[in-house]
Amino acid sequence: MGKLIVISGPSGVGKGTVLGIAMDRCPDLRFSVSATTRGPRPNEVDGVHYYFVTRERFEEMIAAGDFLEYDAHAANYYGTPRAQAMEKMENGHVLLDIEPKGAEQVKKNMPEAILIFIMPPSVEELERRLRGRGDTSEEQIRIRMERAIWEMDQRHWYDHVLVNDSAEACAEEILKIIADKA
Ligand code: ADP
Ligand code: 5GP
Prior knowledge:
about 180 residues; alpha/beta; five-stranded parallel sheet; 9 strands; globular; binds guanosine-5'-monophosphate
């Protein structure tokens, strides 16, 4: 049975980038594909980055108890389908890219999970990255920067706090944490 690894950090900090590098370097890692009611960004593929579902479908899944954890933020629902995460853990370590409210639910329900928080080198650099991605509206940037402050305050109860200065180095640190705990 593999480990469950929770990765949090403000939107735009580079979680997707860092996890992409880590997965390229370690074939034992699986990505837990979340369900969301947010619309896809131009480069996002249904079933790869997220399962893009309607609000009605998401609420049916909540009622059916299908989520390991879920949360509503930035005007949308996001959640981890339980069955998929459990299945992937059978033959590898599973990475969950989720925000702190979901991470708190995982910590409570699965205390053996490893919780990692990724910080930006500075708030200014975070905003630059969010804006530089070029796929988020000004209104969403404002909402996400406000939320980033609250999210970064939550880092203290995570098992590890990393700074994404170099994405390569940050990915290596994650791989080392997993290897140490394996
Ligand atoms: P998240 O998944 O946390 O929302 P992304 O992985 O989409 O963040 O990264 C946001 C933007 O920041 C992207 O344009 C990405 O190329 C860039 N980025 C990621 N890591 C770094 C880094 N270490 N240094 C500079 N830019 C980075
Ligand atoms: P984005 O819209 O930029 O892809 O993600 C916004 C935020 O939602 C990020 O902080 C990301 O970690 C979080 N998120 C993505 N999937 C899930 C999930 O399944 N559950 C929870 N709780 N948060 C998620």
